[in-house]
Amino acid sequence: MHVPRPQRPIGSSPQVHRPRAVVAIAGVVAVTAVLSACGTADDSTTPDVPTVTPATAPAALPGPAAQPAGLVVPTAPESRAMVVGDGTVAVLDAAGTSVLRYTTADPGAEPQVSETPELTQIVSADDGEFVGVGPGSVARIGRDGTVETAALDVDDPTALARTASGDLLVGTADGRVLVVDDELAGSDDELVPGQVIDGFVRVDDITVSPPDADLPEEQVVVLDRAQSSVTPVTVSDGDLGPALRAGNGATNAAVDRFGRVLVANTRDDEIVGFFGSPLVMRFRYPVPGGPYAVDYDDERNLMWVSTTANNEVVAYDLSGGEPVEKRRVPTVAQPDSIAVDDASGTLYVLSERGGLQVIGVGG
């Protein structure tokens, strides 16, 4: 379905939206927590709110994993990101300057390599393309491996998502979301954000509901590890909804075809589910072992979660509202990134220590 691209006045300055007060509500129940630090009011764009120490992935035992299932393709350690789109698995290398493209039909084959400016995040785009962002630039990697770049005034991008209309949502370490048109005219092009939305301590993940979600309109949700919160954002006017607590150590999030936002609360060993407009908490479910990466198989209605402390991925059925475990699979060591190919049900797991694991539907 074609969604018209919003028109912006030529030469207009980006709109900057100031924060509302943060409301620490999870669903209909207020959550009270003892927090470790407070934000500072020295920076006018950073809210003065209670914060937590941002959670990270629990470390697996030293050395390689015992017996990872499926196929394991060698990759360099400390790869930065992985995403699946249109028959291709894209892996961003440790330096952020090479995108390795593996075909889902033959992931063991030699990957196509595209050289890029330094990137920190990457997402899939239309027609088998990928878009990445890094300090000072945005890059589009075409299906044939060609790279287009454009300048963007951003120092430390920490999250990236794409709306149905094609806008890029770039999250930053200093708590802003830049709304950017992803049409790149060439290497001399400079992208100017149509909007700059602040009000966060940091932006660590951004989810965008799919067009057919059970919601009245597209819903964008920002995850802030420093507040362990999720906040709905109206991109058209920059309005922030209430910030909902997601335990004491939220790290990563995914959105399913219904529009449910699934959050890994790593510090508390649980998955937290949010849904609705307004957004409310729907469930909290224990997942031992340090849940970290999360993705959803829209065709088979399975939520996949990696647990980095014990080198496993676990699949849960959410059809009844509460997670029900369906599969548990051993992985490569330190499974910090996962991505599902909805077409085949294949799960891809990227090890922080090196190795791309391919887990088919049957094993």
From TrEMBL:
InterPro entries associated with the record: WD40/YVTN_repeat-like_dom_sf (IPR015943)
Superkingdom of the source species: Bacteria
Record protein name field: Uncharacterized protein
Taxonomic source organism: Gordonia sesuvii
